Structure formats: C-alpha cells, structure tokens
Amino acid sequence: MATQRMLKFVTVGRQMPEKREAADRSQDFHEIYREFAAAKATEQASRCSQCGVPYCQSHCPLHNNIPDWLRLTAEGRTEEAYLLSQETNTFPEICGRICPQDRLCEGNCVIEQSGHGTVTIGAIEKYITDTAWEEGWVRAITPREERPESIGIIGAGPGGLAAADRLRRLGYQVTVYDRHDRAGGLLIYGIPGFKLEKDVVERRNKLLADGGVEFVLNTNIGEDISFDAIRGRHDAVLIATGVYKTRDLDIDNANARGIVRALDYLTASNRVDLGDEVPDFEDGELNAKGKRVVVIGGGDTAMDCVRTAIRQGAQSVKCLYRRDRANMPGSQREVQNAEEEGVEFIWMTAPGAFEGHVTGEAATAEERDVDGLYGVAAVRVQKMRLGAPDVTGRQSPELIPGADYHEPAELVIKALGFEPEEIPRLWGVDGLEVTRWGTIKAHFQTHRTSLPGVYAVGDIVRGASLVVWAIRDGREAADSIVEYLGSTSRVAAE
C-alpha cells in the first residue's frame, strides 16, 4: 500500500507552491509562496522514490528523516509526519522557509539527479508544521520532572533557542540572555519578512516562554551583567552570540554618508515591519525609497538587501558581484526571485571607490563627513575576469585594467559577510580561547570551550553559516551539557 502511494515521480511532475506575482509581492513584506493545499502536498510528497540511501537526509545538517515524513504525508498521516519531523528539528517551520534546500536536501535528491525534478521537500516541511500549528498539535514544553540544575544561554538566535528547547524538555532551568529587545537573533532582525514572517518566530518564542524558558532581554554582557556573574548564577553556560561585525572595504570613502552596512539596513527595515519607530529609517538614511541603490556582495544577505530595497520603493537596484552567476555563494532560487522583482545583477564587478558630492561653504559642520563629502553620488566600478583557481578550487577574480566606469547611487549597501566580535576582550574573560579568525575555539562534537562548564555553538564558532547548522550545534551542545551536569552531580554525590 505504501509503495503504491510513492514512487510517482515518473507520472507526477514537480510543483512548487504557487508564487505570488512579482508586481504584487514586491509591494509588501509578506512571504512570496502560498501554502500547499493538503491534496497538493500529498501529491508532491508521493513523488519521493524512497531510495535505500537517502541523500536528502545525509546532506541535511540535522539528518532529518525526510523519506519517512514524506511517506506519511503522502498517506495523509500529517500529524505523524509532524511528530517525526520535530524529533530531529527544533524549528521545522523556519527551516522549511529559509533553508537553502537547493544546496542541501533538494539539491541532492536522487530523482533530481536522474532528471525528474527534485521533491519539493522544503515546501512540504513548511506545510506539515504550519498544519500542526493550525490543528493545535504544537504544544508548550511540559517536562516530566523538574531538575535543579540551571543553564545560562547567551544569545537568543537559533542555536541558543534550539539548546534551550532541548534542555527545558529534560526539566533543566534555562535562562536565555540577549542584547536585543526580542528573542530570535537574525531570525527576527536579519531575515526579511518576505522570507520569514515575524509572527512565525514570535509564536515559537512564546511557546518556549510558556514552557518555562526565562528570557532576559536588553542585556549586554560585559556592561549590564558580567560573564563571571552569569557563570556564578548557572551550573553551565552556552555562548551562542552569532557574528555581527560587518566586513568592510579598504577603498576610498568607504564610510561616506549614504554607504551603510547590510545588517543596519535590514534591522531597520525589520523593526519598521514589526511596528517600531526607527529614526534612521524615518530620516531616510536607512530607507531606499526613491533612490538608486547599489548592493555589494553575492551571498544570501545581499539577496535580502536587494529585495528589501525593491519593496521600499527604490528607483533602481543593482547588485555588484566579483564573480559570475555560477560562482556566487547565494541561493540561485533567491537570485531568480530578485530578478523577477526588478533587481539587476552586474556580474564580474567590484567597487573601486565611492564618489561623493563635495561639500561647499553652504554645508553645515554636521553635514560634512570626515572625508569632506556630502553623501555618496556614484560607485566607481571595476570590471573583473576569472583567473586561476584559488586554494578552494574557485577561480580568483582579477581586475581588468582600464575598464572602470561610474554607477550612479544615492544608497550603497555593503553586504560583504560577517566577522566575530572580540568576545574575550568585550566581556573581560580570561582563559576563553579563540581561533586565529577570532571565533571561539570549541570541540566540534561536544562544543566544549577551554573554560570548564562553558560551551559555544553556531556562528561564533563556525563563522557566518546557516540557521540549520546553528540548530544542529545547539541540540548537540544541549546533550553535552546534560552529560557534563550528570558527571558533576555524581562527583558531588561522592
């Protein structure tokens, strides 16, 4: 019976959920994909080949049991499919929306390799969990018994929240500290609503709070409370701060007025979407409306910026990337969505300098910036070509001499990636070892740091990476903390 419901990829074509028309969706920040109806989700799940070696599962950082919950969906057993999906994934409704499935599970689907088109795994995962929320199958944590041990988690992003969920389910007392006024990290302030609507994150945060996780927000470690104080309060500590320091450009006028960091720009937009008052948005500094916008970078953050600028009513949006389309790190699906919405990609280009309006006598002291410029006016664009491969095997971009040109711009957004902040210095911590890149040094399986009882996960260990990797790290670290607390309890008892 199960076999008859599956293996339909030879007769049923691949279909994604209906995508809103570009002209419609580019006017707001709502998600662009409509929901699968139950019949369509069942049909698309039935395309799975149920292969003996499921590459979709092995290429998922969480090793989600994808073939089995696809089969359950195809059989109409949606609640069972949800229960199975959440055994390995703390936030399946979030991963179903923002994971780069084209690079992970779907990109390695066996029937994709055979030319039949991948199973739409991400859309089905989203359908399963959204149905679970609608039907009331997602419930707050109710531990079988309460434990006295306490864990402090620094950072309310996906890694910290995944660990909090797992530890709280086992009855541990969990407190999550974060510098922002809402939990969620980049899920709230970094990822735009058209990819992940904020109520999806906020309902998960509420569920954790209802289950007994304590949130201490608007708290800067090293300022409002010391790291030593947190260690003193808790039996174990998990660092899950992420990386927020933006990489910069070493070129002329890189900090002129109108040249902004991607995270500042996205945070302002998301805060406005959440209903906050944002002065830097209201005065136009972090608002693309009516401006010619240039975004520098080729990763997923750059894609978020270009698509946000379109929705803010930019006059034009262009993206500079120093390699070609095939070599860009961002999701190809996101590039296609951006192009449909009116973004122009200028491949094989890099900024050489920023040109500005020279301030005259009429400009006030407040209007003049340190470089004697008043606002960016254009980007001097350098054309590139691909040369010999670098150590990773990717061809290195090379400058084409004499091929520069000027691209007009009133707003330039730097989406060049992120680096870790100097945690030991900022927090005044002795003995916390870091790598030569500034990330915290932690064991790759247990996530232990050089300090007893202190663990670290996510981007602050890996460098800028994917949400799904942070979730995996958080779950693994929670298990390591449980083992550590168990051993320390035994020692105390002896």
Automatic annotation (TrEMBL):
It is an enzyme of class 1 (oxidoreductase). It holds the Pfam family Pyr_redox_2. Its EC number is 1.4.1.14. It comes from the Bacteria. Residues 152-474 form the FAD/NAD(P)-binding domain. Keywords: 4Fe-4S, Iron, Iron-sulfur, Metal-binding, Oxidoreductase. GO terms for molecular function: 4 iron, 4 sulfur cluster binding; glutamate synthase (NADH) activity; metal ion binding. Residues 26-136 form the Dihydroprymidine dehydrogenase domain. InterPro entries: DPD_II, FAD/NAD-bd_sf, FAD/NAD-binding_dom, GltD-like, Helical_ferredxn. This is Glutamate synthase (NADPH/NADH), small chain. The lineage of its organism: Bacteria, Pseudomonadati, Pseudomonadota, Alphaproteobacteria, Rhodobacterales.
